[in-house]
Amino acid sequence: MKKVLLFILLFATFALTGCSKTRITNLVGDELFAYEDGSYLVYVYKDNCEACEDVTPIVESYVRAYRDGAFENKSPIYGFNLSNKTNSVVDREYDSEAGDLDGQGKEGNLLINDITNWDELYIGNAPLLIVIRNRTGNRIAEFWAEGADINSRLQSYYYG
Fold it and tell me: Which of 12, 19, 36, 91 is the most buried (most CB within 10 A)?
């Protein structure tokens, strides 16, 4: 019950303060793998994307709560806007039949898991949530959620 009330409070705070500017710190290009300490979540989105417009306010509410100290020992969330000219090079669909690896995501058009260089990602749709973490001395990307599933994944991660 306490978790539900906190979620409602976060959502109400967002609704009352509006969404004049995003509070998500956006990463560009190789910044995606630049942070050395711990793991962090990356919210991938595009400008003028209807599904992104539905999910972004929810992600922003978690970003605010994290910055306000509500989620100790949890990972921060950064943004990665595919509409940014530099970032747009990874806005492409992965064809698993042409490669050696199966694609990720609901449609299999993403290549994210175990990628260590930002420009080797294939991000065939938005919005989505990935995690960057250390594994065997390397920073790697892992697929976490896409579309409407982002909200439930964030809720289970931060409140679970």
Answer: 91
pLDDT of residue 37: 73
| Nearest-angstrom CA–CA distance, 157 and 138 | 23
Determine if residue 126 is left, alpha or beta; phi over 0 gives left, psi from -120 to 50 gives alpha, anything else beta: beta
16: domain CATH number is 3.40.30.10
Burial of residue 66 (CB within 10 Å: 0-12, 13-18, 19+) is: middle
Domain residue limits at 137: 2-159
Bridge partners of residue 78, in order along the sequence = 42
> What pTM does this model have?
0.85
CB–CB of 27/40 below 8 Å? no
Alpha carbon distance, N-terminus to C-terminus of the chain: 12
Token pair 């992600």 is at which residue? 59
